[in-house]
Write a structure and sequence with these properties.
About 30% of the residues lie in helices and about 25% in strands. With about 270 residues, it is of the alpha/beta class. It has a single domain, classed as Nitrilase/N-carbamoyl-D-aminoacid amidohydrolase (4-Layer Sandwich), CATH 3.60.110.10. The strands form three sheets. The protein has a six-stranded mixed beta sheet with strand order 5-4-3-2-1-14. It has a six-stranded mixed beta sheet with strand order 6-7-8-9-12-13, with helices on one face. Strands 10-11 form a two-stranded antiparallel sheet. Helix 1 packs parallel to helix 3 (about 70-80). The longest helix has 17 residues, at about 20-35.
């Protein structure tokens, strides 16, 4: 068995209050570490809040560097709590290439294990962020992690690419609002079954109108079974234990990854 403990935070962001949101995130990280979590995941753009109408052009001003002070504070929290962390935020791209709707992935020792920049931008996000160019699985101490952000999960190729790279757990920090909940309910069991791997989706809470987020974190197992259907409209952290060995067991009887005809497709992992 390869038991892994996930801590998934339905975070209620205070719009544009980076320091306050970071402080509250650190408290969640410490709590998760104290409960034996291996990985803590926060929602899309949790550090600033998600609202392109309210925040808009200010995302560029609020963007953080992976080497900056806010990320250093999160790194130190991860090190103290001995837990891996996925921390989404507006992220300054290297070489002055703009701002991504990104995430910093922190290892248990407090080092930066990698970064990810959302590839498929949703509607007005295109006005404020530079899209990413690909997906790469990241090796952490419990296994290989694949990161997608929200709309990315609507493209099956994204998950399949990560699975073919050996990702054993896909995490999807998100900002889903109520009008799109039917998609939220469908995506993650489907992506898990298609790739015989665990999928954990983390949604924010709070906001107003088109940007009212409702939480309802999800975890799906490698046979498409729903393991977590989180509470609605409440800030909460759910701890879920999974066994990554179940991926291999499922793949024996549902051999999608073995039988896929990569040669028949235009894209490559």
């Amino acid at each position: 068995m390869r038991k892994t403990n996930l801590a998934l935070v339905q975070f209620a962001s205070d719009p544009m209050n980076i320091e306050g949101n970071a402080d509250r995130a650190i408290a969640f990280i410490e709590e998760a570490g104290g409960q034996g979590a291996d990985l803590v995941v926060f929602p899309e753009l949790f550090l600033t809040g998600y609202d392109t109408d309210l925040i808009g052009e200010k995302y560029a001003e609020l963007a953080q560097s992976a080497e900056g002070a806010i990320v250093r504070s999160l790194r130190e929290a991860a090190r103290r709590a001995r837990v891996n962390v996925v921390a989404p935020m507006p992220l300054k791209l290297k070489g002055g290439a703009g701002v991504g709707n990104g995430a910093v992935i922190l290892a248990r020792d407090g080092s930066v294990a990698g970064t990810f920049n959302k590839v498929h931008l949703w509607e007005d996000e295109r006005k404020h962020f530079v899209p990413g160019n690909g997906f790469a699985a990241i090796a952490l101490d419990f296994g290989k992690l694949g990161v997608q952000i929200c709309y990315d999960a609507g493209f099956p190729e994204s998950s399949r690419t990560l699975a073919l790279q050996g990702a054993e757990l896909l995490v999807v920090p998100s900002a889903f609002s109520l009008p799109d909940k039917h998609r939220w309910d469908l995506y993650f069991p489907a992506r898990a079954l298609e790739n015989t791997c665990f999928v954990a989706a983390v949604n924010g809470v709070g906001g107003q109108g088109a940007f009212e987020l409702y939480g309802n974190n999800k975890v799906a197992g490698p046979r498409g079974e729903l393991l977590l259907d989180g509470v609605m409209h409440e800030e909460a952290m759910q701890l879920v234990e999974i066994d990554l060995e179940e991926n291999h067991n499922a793949a024996k009887s549902i051999p999608y990854l073995r039988d896929i005809r990569i040669d028949a497709y235009a894209y490559r992992a």
